[in-house]
Amino acid sequence: MKFRRRNLEDLGELICGNLGSDEPGSDNPKYFYYLSSSYITRFFAELDTDYEHDGSTRHRWVADVLEKMLAEPHDGPTHPPEIFCRVIDHLMSPADALNEGPDRSKALQQLNTVLLREGFEAFYAEDKHCYLRHAGTGTVAKSAANPHRPLNPAETERRTKLASYLDKCSEDELIEEVLLPLFRQLGFHRVTAAGHRDKALEYGKDVWMRYTLPTQNVLYFGLQAKRGKLDSSGMTRTGNANIAEIHNQALMMIAHEIFDPETNRRVLVDHAFIVAGGQITKAARNWLANVLDASRRSQILFMDRDDILNLYIVNNLPLPAAALPPAADPWATAGDEPPF
Question: Looking at the DSSP assignment, which residues form a beta bridge with residue 130?
Fold first, then answer.
């Protein structure tokens, strides 16, 4: 990834704290702390890097460092390298607010004036960290989220709300409100719902999508979603699905071609996702693995309720509107009347 030199030097000005005046009551106050040579070195040392300022012009030296960081491996044009994202997050720490509140709205405005020239925008998420978002696609650029890490209290509360939503949502809502945003955020491209409502040309797929490897090879994925639990019992309860049904749909998914309009060709699905809004029992997984031959068995990937919840929360995706509590009615208290 490459930023224009002018923009790199402008970012260097912000990191060095060169903009604005220290005079009390100034019309142009500082929103970033001034960093001398030793403090610039400490700034990058706190990011676990070995960069040491060499005494040259500070903002130009910082621009050189940022240029090296942007040259590191990354996941495509919408995802800057992880170390660059960490620089932005460290720069915008709420604890370093100067001449404004911890939301740092003025500092964020100055930062985004520079970043938007390169097609990115910085924003604060609910965890109070600053992330980069690609202005064109809305993809949030950050380091790979670990779905198995402990959740903080705010994340636990959001997870509970999403779990309640999964209990009551329909299959179409599961796909459109949860799975499509999730897989887009995870870096899949052309995430397309394949006629789920009318069942037209579905062939076992509720969704198809593709993923571009760092080598620029492309893998295609089909996804079959079920709202409830997947089991292997002889008599399946209402709301659950039997793995035998999923077996037939998985065979159709793998065997049938899809048309990719961007490449103008028909391709086979490389891997099939079996996704359940409830639990996928071990017996169901084992049954499907036993009936598929070895080549097709390696093509099947499973995601159950816990996988969906953890991935959705650690990637900091906004909850579906129906999962949020209704807005309070300001005229709902006894004795109050609307002003009309």
Answer: 124
Domain end position, chosen among 106, 141, 176: 141
With residue 151 as reference, give the H or E element that holds it: none
Q: Are residues 167 and 89 in the same domain?
A: no
Does residue 37 form part of some domain? yes
The range of the structural domain enclosing residue 226 comes to: 153-323
Which pLDDT score is estimated for 108?
93
SS3 call for 233:
coil
**DSSP 8-state assignment for residue 178:** I
DSSP state of 32: S
pLDDT digits (tens, 9 = 90+) for 213-265: 878 888 999 888 888 888 877 655 665 677 787 778 878 888 888 888 888 88
Residue 21's pLDDT band, with cuts at 50, 70 and 90, is confident
Same domain, 13 and 111: yes
Does residue 146 fall inside a structural domain?
no
Q: What is the mean pLDDT of residues 172-197?
A: 83
pTM: 0.58
Question: How distant, in Å, are the alpha carbons of 93, 105, 115, 230, 320 from that of 97?
Answer: 7, 10, 19, 50, 32
Q: What is the pLDDT of residue 327?
A: 56
Q: Do 91 and 174 share a domain, yes or no?
A: no
> In angstroms, what CA-CA distances link 85 with 40, 58, 79, 179, 232?
17, 21, 9, 25, 45
